[in-house]
Amino acid sequence: MKKFIMALLTVTLIVSSFGCEKKQTDNSSNNSEITESSETPTIQPDPYSVKTSSVSSSTATKKSTEKSTEKTTSTVTTATESTETSTEKIEDVTEADPLGAGAFSYDKDGALQFTEEPETDNEQLMMSAGQALFESACRYQWIYTVGCPYEIDTESVVENGFGWKYYKITDENIHSIADIENDYYAVFSERYPNEDLKMLYLEFEDGVYALNGQREMNPYYSVSKIVDIQSQTDDEIFFTVENYYEGTDTSPDEPYSEKETFSMVIAGNKIRVGQFRLPY
Fold this sequence. Notes:
Blueprint: H1 2-37, H2 66-71, E1 104-106, E2 112-114, H3 123-145, E3 152-159, E4 165-169, H4 177-184, H5 197-200, E5 201-204, E6 207-210, E7 221-232, E8 236-245, E9 256-267, E10 270-273
Antiparallel strand pairs: 1-2, 2-10, 3-4, 4-6, 5-6, 7-8, 8-9, 9-10
């Protein structure tokens, strides 16, 4: 009888152990599915909304203009689906004036256009404009410096001294780096020249070639928000922008933020990007 009882207990323990292992395996499988289906968070259109820990990548970190959409056949794709929005129009992504007053809008190049002379003493309006322009700056900086806003010929390739491959731009309006700079400085102020353009684009007798690097964006980047106005002059306003991240490679579950200076340069009714750094 004792032997029978011991045998029965042994069978019971084995069955219980098997059940636990199966339950753990099932839970692990479910967790894996959740991780795979999560998407990289990007910029929120509404700078005044509260971001949760998970944001759909359908919103834009970087949206091209109508002009860029028509020209670009080689868009940024290495950042998975989070950069697919590079081919959408700005107007389809976010209302330029989050306050809904209609005081300004995006022009065809991606700068801000005020309907009247900007009320620079209206702090709320200027912060709203700063947020809209910062988001545009992110989109265009990505397009010009990570990808290429023009149609390229991937069969026509040159290399520089480091072995980097450059592809010929086939857009009929681009004949020199100066043409690219004209487009770029329609959004960004020449007060803050971007010397990287001369490294990202090479000019030859037969045309201009683009690096079209297509790197991935920072997967931990979450959102950027204008938090205050630092100072202003007659034609430039300096803001504090706070960039939020959900972690790092070494600490993926430890969110943090960084504050930097962003500025917009005012020229009549048009406002362009001044001091700026791409946060991802």
